[in-house]
Amino acid sequence: MDKFIIEGGRQLAGEVEIQSAKNAVLPLLAASILTDERVIIHKCPRIMDVLNMIQILNELGCRTDFDGETLIIDSADAANHEIPSALAKELRSSVFMLGSVIARFGRARIAYPGGCDIGLRPVDLHLKGLKSLNVNIAEEGGYINCNCGKLIGADILLDCPSVGATENIILAAVKGEGRTLIRNAAKEPEICDLQSFLNKMGAKISGAGTSTVSIEGVRRLHGVEYTPIPDRIEAGTFLIAVAMCGGEAEICRAAADNIAALIHKLREISCKITVKNDKIYIKNGGTRRSLRMIETMPYPGFPTDLQAPVTALACISEGSTVIVENLFETRYKHVPELIRMGADITVRGRAAFVRGVPRLHGADVVAGDLRGGAALTLAAISAEGMSSVTDLSHIDRGYSGFEYKLASLGAKIRRIRV
Ligand code: UD1
């Protein structure tokens, strides 16, 4: 098991380039089996979630070639419709394969998905949506079995704007007969990216980024060459790192519009932020006023995936901050670890009450999930003294070369194998 050894307390300076968005790339990989022609994805991040998804594609019979940052997927010979439980449990996004596997083979069998343990994370909306498209679904022995004669377009209203359910329904409806409408759809930028990718393959989708997505089914999709959008959560993580450590940095290949909620908050606490094309420049002289109140919301609200890093920031900001986590039930696993570093936090249900302290001190902490692990790493590089962050498998799921990027900004961080 790997761990980071960190000597905290250094200001940051320099520039980092942002990887393509994990949450954009994963559904694109699921979409790649909708065609039997070649799909080429440029700037594909080498993160564990992507590597696991590639393994799933291989399991289905695709040929994949991941050279440098370019991933080529050839699913001409794909013939298998079953995703084995060992792989599905590694990765929640394996559930996105349902829609596209059904669209390709008329059936699918998948074990209940895994992913970060941050709450219940049901898939009822995915299944309800697929049923509306004429898919028969039977659940038995931890597996979801789907069968479908013909996918038929439908008018679907989601009970809540689930990102994954919106994407899964798009992935099935794209090859259905007639038109599908998804109302109360999620509006995340990654859904717009999926629409652009599929339309480039010949699909007829409109409305992504609004609460109604319209999909006109087509018979055939063709190959595509594509570069996904930059990762807004990675960009946000580095912005928060600079806010916590002080200093200045240029975050390159970033989409500032997609993290407006965070940028707004960082300006409020006295970070100087300027945006030019795809670069975000941030400077913080060491003052951090109170964040006051942060409530996670579906896009364009404050993203739940930045809740843990921003909680770490609140720990060393002036005054008190109230954080409310509205999306996932148990997304405060980083809190006891932050407390070990000297933070003053009380959690009651979905709310965390943070009273700022001047600085955190180093400690040996354990990453319990992906974004919580990133938050602890930021806390450690800003803290006084030595820290270790254990169980990097979580962080490796979503950040490529996290420690190298932080080190290039001047943080003292290295990985050791224990
Ligand atoms: C995606 C992101 C994840 C992010 C989350 C919210 C990917 C790979 N993951 O996860 O990083 O934290 O969006 O922005 O893109 N829900 C149901 N039933 C369902 C599906 C969801 O009740 O069938 C609920 C969930 O429990 C949760 C809420 O809807 O409370 C939002 O979940 P959802 O948007 O589906 O998140 P994911 O797609 O799993």
From TrEMBL:
GO terms for molecular function: UDP-N-acetylglucosamine 1-carboxyvinyltransferase activity. The keyword Kinase does not apply. Phosphoenolpyruvate binds at residues 22-23. InterPro entries: Enolpyruvate_Tfrase_dom, Enolpyruvate_Tfrase_sf, MurA_subfamily, RNA3'P_cycl/enolpyr_Trfase_a/b, UDP_GlcNAc_COvinyl_MurA. CDD domains: UdpNAET (cd01555). SUPFAM superfamilies: EPT/RTPC-like. It catalyses: phosphoenolpyruvate + UDP-N-acetyl-alpha-D-glucosamine = UDP-N-acetyl-3-O-(1-carboxyvinyl)-alpha-D-glucosamine + phosphate. Its EC number is 2.5.1.7. Pathway: Cell wall biogenesis; peptidoglycan biosynthesis. One of its GO terms (cellular component) is cytoplasm. Keywords: Cell cycle, Cell division, Cell shape, Cell wall biogenesis/degradation, Cytoplasm, Peptidoglycan synthesis, Pyruvate, Transferase. It is found in: Cytoplasm. Pfam families: EPSP_synthase. Its main location: cytoplasm. The keyword Cell division applies. Belongs to the EPSP synthase family. MurA subfamily. Cell wall formation. Adds enolpyruvyl to UDP-N-acetylglucosamine. This is UDP-N-acetylglucosamine 1-carboxyvinyltransferase. The lineage of its organism: Bacteria, Bacillati, Bacillota, Clostridia, Christensenellales.
